[in-house]
Write a structure and sequence with these properties.
This protein is of the alpha+beta class. It has nine helices and nine strands. The chain has two domains: 61 residues, Winged helix-like DNA-binding domain superfamily/Winged helix DNA-binding domain (Arc Repressor Mutant, subunit A, Orthogonal Bundle), CATH 1.10.10; 213 residues, Beta-Lactamase. Helix 1 crosses helix 3 and helix 4 packs antiparallel against helix 8. The two termini are 29 Å apart.
């Protein structure tokens, strides 16, 4: 662990609704650090806008925190609004279900319902995964403006995880074009060998693809025999989550045409004996 980062976090944790203003001396006393150490860290935090120093020498939290708290609020709101729909999807297909948000050049997993057939020791929630080789990532990339896609890929590159990974820019462009036309992305073991996934984008009220959800499992029929049923399920779920996040489609397109609920129509027929999923999750797609 990095000591200076821990000290900076401890300093920021001292500011509360009951005590929004604190002096340098008080911080030094509370944390038992020399004033010079506290002052150096405060100057750095002030430079980046995380704290502000008033004319009376008192410090308070700065405005740079606001976008971060907004992001946390949106993620919690998304998870809470999406959870009932994702549980319904999990019951429908009997596979693992994931919810992610874009986090820079990666997808951050914020909710997971794991299939009992895919038991692992740890949760997927909190993991980040690349975008070019996962269904959740490609679902988002396909609906972003080209300049945003280029910006993301410039940061992440196109590293190969196995022989199935798309590592060429032209091939990826074709894949994103196909994804955009059909409304969902396919991961054919491109990140994790033997894992097959379908992902669909989730839009916010501005019409931006900021999140995605996916069906993931080790059954290759997810992307073959079961593709029609499962793709309808993931598209419907993503569409309904988008609506709950305030998105209103401008036109009745292939992606956003009104859909009857395929999860209630098909039920257990789609999974043929699959078992219930459990919340918590392990690995992710």
């Amino acid at each position: 662990m990095i000591g200076s980062v821990l000290k900076a976090i401890e300093i920021m944790q001292q500011f509360t609704p009951d005590q929004p203003l604190i002096s340098l001396a008080d911080l030094s006393t509370r944390l038992n650090y020399p004033k010079t150490t506290i002052h150096t860290i405060l100057k750095t935090l002030e430079f980046k806008g995380f704290v502000e120093r008033g004319g009376n020498g008192m410090y308070s939290l700065g405005t740079a925190i606001i976008p971060m708290t907004q992001s946390v609020r949106v993620n919690v709101q998304l998870r809470d609004r999406a959870a009932p729909l994702l549980r319904e999807l999990g019951e429908f297909c009997g596979e693992s279900i994931y919810l992610t948000v874009q986090n820079g050049p990666f997808c951050l997993y914020i909710y997971a319902i794991e299939s009992p057939d895919r038991l692992m020791a740890r949760t997927a929630v909190g993991d980040t995964m690349p975008m070019h080789c996962t269904s959740v990532g490609k679902a988002i990339l396909a609906f972003l403006p080209e300049d945003k896609v280029q910006e993301i890929l410039a940061q992440s590159g196109l590293p190969a995880y196995n022989e199935h990974t798309i590592t060429g820019m032209e091939a990826l462009r074709e894949e994103l074009h196909t994804t955009r036309k059909r409304g969902f992305a396919i991961d054919n073991s491109e990140h994790e060998e033997g894992v097959f996934c379908l992902g669909a984008p989730i839009f916010n009220e501005q019409g931006e693809p900021f999140a995605s959800c996916s069906i993931s499992g080790t059954d290759s029929e997810i992307i073959s025999r079961k593709l029609d049923a499962f793709s309808a399920g993931i598209r419907y779920t993503a569409q309904e989550i988008s609506r709950r996040m305030g998105f209103v489609p401008k036109a009745d397109t292939l992606l956003w045409r009104e859909m009857t609920n395929p999860l209630r129509e098909g039920g257990s027929k789609s999974r043929e004996g699959g078992s219930k999923s459990r919340e918590g999750g392990s690995r992710s797609r």
